[in-house]
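#struct-pred
JK: can someone run the complex with SN-glycerol-3-phosphate? inputs below
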Amino acid sequence: MKFFIDTANLDQIREAQDLGILDGVTTNPSLMAKEGISGKEAILTHYKTICEIADGDISAEVLSTTYEEMIAEGDELAAIHPNIVVKIPMIKDGIKALKYFSDKGIKTNCTLIFSAGQALLAAKAGATYVSPFLGRLDDISVDGLNLIEEIRIIFDNYMFDTEILAASIRSPMHIINCAKIGADVVTSPLGSILNLLKHPLTDSGLAQFVADAKKMG
Ligand code: G3P
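RT: done, C-alpha cells with the ligand placed:
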C-alpha cells in the first residue's frame, strides 16, 4: 500500500519524506489556502517546491469547474513537473477532462468520490486514481469503509488499472482498515501516520531494555 501525505504544508511534507516511507502528496484548494497560498504564480511555485521536496505522485487540483477551463489549467499544472497528477472534481465536465488527460498520458486523480457509481465512471474515463472521502462519509454516519470495499470489488471484477486512493483519513484505524480492504493508496495527515508508530507496550518495553542495557555497562 502506498502512503501519501494529505497536506500543502512544506515542513510536514519534509518530515514525512525524511521518514523514508512517503510515496506521494495530495493537496486540495482548502489545504493550499490554509498555507496562505494565493494567486496563480504562488500556486505554481508552491507545487514546484513540493515536487522538489517529495518523491512520487503529487496531486495538484484544478480550481475551475468547466471542461475548457479544467483542461487549460490541468495542462499548465502538468507542465510544472513530471510527477504532477492533475486532480479533477467528480462532475460531468470532470469526466470529460479525465478522458482528455488520460488520452494525453497525463496522470489524474478524480476527487470528491462518495459513491461506487462515481468511482466506476472515473475509472471508465481512465482516471489514474479515484479519491473516495472516507472521513466525510463517516462524519454523516455513512460507513466510508464500505464504499472502499465496494470500489475494490468493482475494480477487481473488471481489472481496472485505476488505483483506489483512500482520502479524508481521520485516524490510524482508518489507515489499517484501508490496508485490510486493499486500498492501493492512503493519503493521510502527518498525525495519523505518526500515530501508527505508537504502542504503550513498545514504550514500556524499550524503557526496560534501556534500563537493563545500563546494567550491562
Ligand atoms: O484531499 C482530500 C481529502 O483528503 C480531504 O480530507 O479531512 O478535508 O475531509 P478532509
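RT: quick notes.
Residues 200-215 form the longest helix (16 residues).
The chain has a mean pLDDT of 97.
JK: thanks, will look after standup
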